[in-house]
Amino acid sequence: MAGKTSGDVGQNATVILTITSDNYQDSTVNVNIDLVDKFVPIVMVTDYTRDYNGSKVEISEVENNCTASYGGANVPGKLVLQNPTDFDDVLNAGNYTKTVNFVPDDNTTYKESAVNINIDINKIKPTGKPSFTKITTTGKTLADANILIGSITPVGGNVTWDDGDTTTVLRNKSYGWTYVPAVADRTNYDNLTGITVVWKKKSSGGGSGSSGGSSSTVTPDNKNDKKPVDEGQRTPEFKDVKKGAWYEEPINFMVEKKLMKGTGKEEFRPMLQTSRATIVTILYRMSKEKVDGSKNSFKDVKSGMWYTEAIAWANENGIISGFEKGEFKPNQDLTREQLVVILYRYAMYKKYDSSKNISLSEYDDVNEVSKYSKEAMEWAVANGIIKGTSKTSLSPKKGAIRAELATIFMNFYNKFM
Predict the structure, then answer these.
(1) How far apart are CA 108 and CA 1, in angstroms?
(2) Which CATH fold would you assign to the domain 42-122?
């Protein structure tokens, strides 16, 4: 073997061995040796995805996406750039494919190898909100509201009212706006959308009535079947609806529209959980359509209940679907994602615009959004119908309380109706 080195890969050598024994004659054996290279590990690199943050991707960020093995055993190692400047252009939103080297820690046994990695950088939404001139009298248009960029960043883009400047401003009505980033920023930023009320005016008075309801009035939960406020009566003053609370305006809106009512003459119970039957009933009464409740197909929906016709109507028109075993579970708490799915299907049933959507990547709990509700949630967020419970959380499995239901439904109503 003298003279053979590791550089002679692919060559072979013959070694002559002499076997000696006290009882037998000496003999020789020829041993042929083929020289082979180091072991080549199998390197797997999953796609690396992150949001745009203004800085380039570093090789250290993608190392956790890399695994290497040989013969079923893990091969420790690290990723190394082939050239120091290879990642200098991996900065803006977009898709990149880069070739890097996997360097095993045990470079005596294992061979270094090249591997491709796909990098996706997502666009992000601008932050902040616009400013505008508050409207305080009748006869004004959105042009008078004079919407400006306000605190939105990045600056340099353009913000406009979705309904156009010539739209007459109505009291307590929400109006949508869209911020389009400057051309130079559109590579990395999506449009920012939102809604706002430019003329806020509280209802005066606070009496409540008790005589019969109309087809546009609903019972808000399965524990309450009292008669709603009369048509023509002003919004009642609820003791448990605090002045200036985030839910005050939506609750007043829903009561004035005869879509929700209090649980008593002076209570609304904004923090009470909402049932699945409630949202269906609101939509049914608002649609002013009629259906034969006897055709109900859910075995847990009894005839003659306050929600029976509504559930039959919603099921017949593809707005709801039940659970396994033919159940609807009308009294089960309504989750936030169930709520937006039902509104989304209602929008499609009514042929409202259901095309607008937006990525949910900015929310840390995006993976908690069920597959069946993802499209509806993207649509609801894009249209300003639902907002996160925080800047980074959607809480899709969280039960929707009455205050949230009022807020989300008001946003939907103002957007499409």
Answers:
(1) 20
(2) Immunoglobulin-like (2.60.40)
